[in-house]
Each structure stands twice: as C-alpha cells, then as structure tokens.
Design goal:
Blueprint (H helix, E strand, L loop, with lengths): L1 E2 H4 L5 E5 L5 E2 L1 E3 L9 E4 L12 H6 L4 E4 L11 E5 L2 H12 L8 E6 L4 H14 L4 E4 L3 E4 L2 E4 L7 H13 L4 E5 L2 H5 L10 E4 L7 H4 L2 H13 L6 E5 L15 E6 L6 E9 L2 E6 L2 E5 L4 H16 L4 H8 L10 E4 L5 E5 L4 H14 L6 E5 L9 H12 L2 E4 L9 H9 L10 E3 L3 H11 L5 E5 L6 E4 L2 E4 L2 H12 L2
Helix pairs in contact: 3-5, 4-9, 9-10, 11-12, 12-13, 14-15
Amino acid sequence: MKLLSDILYKVKLEEIIGSTHVAISSIVFDSRKVKKDSLFVATKGAADDGHIYIQKAIESGAIAIVCEEIPKDKNDQITYVKVTDSTYALGVMACNYFDNPSEKLKLVGITGTNGKTTTVTLLFNLFKSLGYSVGLLSTVQNKINNTVIPSTHTTPDAITLNELLFKMEEQGCEFVFMEVSSHAIVQNRIAGINFTGALFSNITHDHLDYHKTFDEYIKAKKQFFNLLPSTAFALTNRDDKNGMVMLQNTKANKYTYALKNIADYKCKIIESHLNGLLLNIDNHEVWVKLIGTFNAYNILSVYATAILLKQDITSVLTALSNLNSVEGRFQYVKSPNGVIGIIDYAHTPDALKNVLETVKEIRSGSEQVITLVGCGGDRDSAKRPIMAAIACEYSNKVILTSDNPRTEDPEEILNQMQAGVNPVDIKKVLRITDRREAIKIACSFSSKGDIILIAGKGHEKYQEINGVKHDFDDLEILKETIKILGI
C-alpha cells in the first residue's frame, strides 16, 4: 500500500477532487484488473479510451481515478485527479509506486530498427560473465540473472516495467539492459525512468503502419535521447545516416562508434568466416563467434557500452570472444551432406539485406542461395514488395511464404510481396503459402554446400493465424526436414 499523495509526486496535476491521503493497493489501466482500493488510470489508446471504463473501475473497487476528463457524475467517495496526459502520468506514477527502481540501477536502453535483441542479450551475457548480477528486458525474454520471465512486448507497459525493475533491484542486480521500442517511447511506457545510458543501432524502413511516415519514426527514436539526463551517456552509430540526429539536443554525454567513419570507438573486420569474425577493435585484435558485418556493429556497440560503464578493456575483450550468437539471429545448422541452413529474425528490408550480404561474404561462389521469406500480417505493408525484391537480388531461388499472417489473408500478403519481383526474376521465384511445406521444398532443392536462409521468424516458436498461435519453430522444422530428406 502507498499513499496517493506519494504516487502523484512529480506528476503535472490540473485538478484534484477529494483527498490524496488515501492508501492505494495497486495501479491499473485495465479496468478488468481493478481490485479493492486500486488507482485506476484512464488512458487513451489507439483502439480504446479508458475513460469509458471509469464507472466500471469504481464498481470493481477503485478508490481513486486519474484521468484527462473528470466525469460529470462524480462519486463523493472517490478521489479524482485530472492530468494533461494520463499515459505520461501513468509512467511517472508507476515509478513512484515501486520506489523508483531505475534510480538504483545502472540501466541502459537500446533502440534502433535492427540489432536491439542481439545487443541487449550480448550485454546481459557479457556482464554476467564479468561477475555481475544482471537484468534483461528483451523481445525474446526477460531475465533476472538465470531466472526467465516470459516476454509479451519488446518494451513492457509502464507498470510491468517498473515492477520488473523493482524485482531486479530487490534481487541485487547492478546492471540492466533493455530494448526500447519506438512504440514504447511514443506511448510513454518509459516515462519517469532514469537511464544511465542509451544506445542507437540504426534506423531503417519499419513500423510505418504505426508511425505513418519515416520522419515520425525517426522522431520517435530521437525522443528517447531527448529525455536523457546530463549524467547519462548517449552512444550512436555514426555510420547510420541518421545516427548523429539522435545526439542533437540531448543533454547526455555524446559518443559514437563506427566501422567506416571516424568515431570514438572504431572497429575493422580483418577476417569473416561462417564460424566467426576476426576484428580489430580500438587497435586490439579479438576473435568472436558471431557472423557478418551487422554483428561487427553489434559487438562494437557492446564493447563501447561496456567501456562507458567503466569496465576493464582486457576483461571485456576476453569475455566478448567467448560469447555465443543469440537464438534466432543468424543461427545455422549444417546437414550431414554439407547443406547449410540459416534461421534469422530478419523481418525488415535492411535486416534481410544485411543477412544476405553476410551470406554472400561467406559463400565460396559456386553454391546456391535459397531464400525463404514472408511478411507479417497487420503490420507495415509497404515493405513487402521491397523484401521480395531484395531476396531475388541476392538469391538463386526464392520461396515466398507465410510469416505470421495474423488477421490478414496470407494470399494477399504474398500478392503484395510478389508485386516487388522484377520480371527477369520470375523464373526463380516460387510461392508456397504453407510455411512447413515451403521449408520442405527449399531443402529438396538443395545440393551439397548450398545455403538455405529461412528469414522472418527467428526465435519465435509459433505461427499466428487469425488470432490463434500454432506451435511452429523454424529451426526444429528445418532439422526435422533435413533428417527426413537425408540431405
């Protein structure tokens, strides 16, 4: 229990009706989760307006309401608090309710289109290997040291986020690494959170179903850096054409990393192989187990972050050389007959291009590249023809198939992808809606040494069709198919 007056600390208040000297049992923004003495926050979302559930929340036991519009029919037993922006107020109140855990942790947020999950996971594993107690907040899973907590969003809602940070602080975590999505930034899920540092990886075509324009998408990412305090560090990828934009107007200490341009932290790829990379990082040679240029960027950003967090250079480089790749990120298997199957989460044009360019780097030249790719339903449709075109440019054969169609017609998604296929490439493109069958056909096409890329779903263990999640694991299905076909 916490007093409402304490929960409202630092919240911009417009009007209060009733007493703030009431004990609150929980903060909720979903009226179905209200219990006795809850504080119900009426937020306005893209699909729903919490203000219409105020009466229901009161009937379920809410003792106080935070809202942008105070109801005309007020209850004398209820405290009403009017604010300008209830989603922002929710973030600040959630921080207060859980005693501002982010202020007691060294919390680093990673944002960007591609590489967030890999980077936060590598940072988590790196700092664990350096002997620290560490927390992880990612698309794949949340972790407190070795304890796994299932993840439902890239960045949790403000209440869940602060509750997780509270548990991490309670269990002795010193460092926490979290993905910060553009949705979370504009929806104020990180409002009130204190960040020790922020890292920008890159920005490419994605989420335009939500942000509408690329400019709005960039502004969403930049907003994260604008919120940083002067005590924090802001680390950006100088090789990304929008990288330096992130540092404009931030109060944080500014740092850069790059492979191509002059930067505070530099890296050069000396050798690139299927089993790893030999890198020169700030004049130190290090072998890492990750593959491809995009992973050289990820490794460099992890190294730079660790140094900015005052870690010993030699210890960091040694630990980096022992880190394994992240599940579903350029994860590969080799069949008894020498066929290489690669599973990757690439679901944006840039990510797909990066993976296929990496395949081009490691191939000897004579083998086929067979790419299987789909696009998710209920998401940015503009990228669909672009991804099909990229797959054709870099592959000998392309199979267009379903990803997670969600509530969309899979055939319509494939129609939109197929529209991006150049007429000269039509002969090398197959369209197989059933993803399992598509994997089987891709394997049956292959010969010794060929490379099969299965893109889009990566670590996911399901396929979502019409709101139902069916068991589906690209890696397991690939292994099973290789065994059945004997390739």
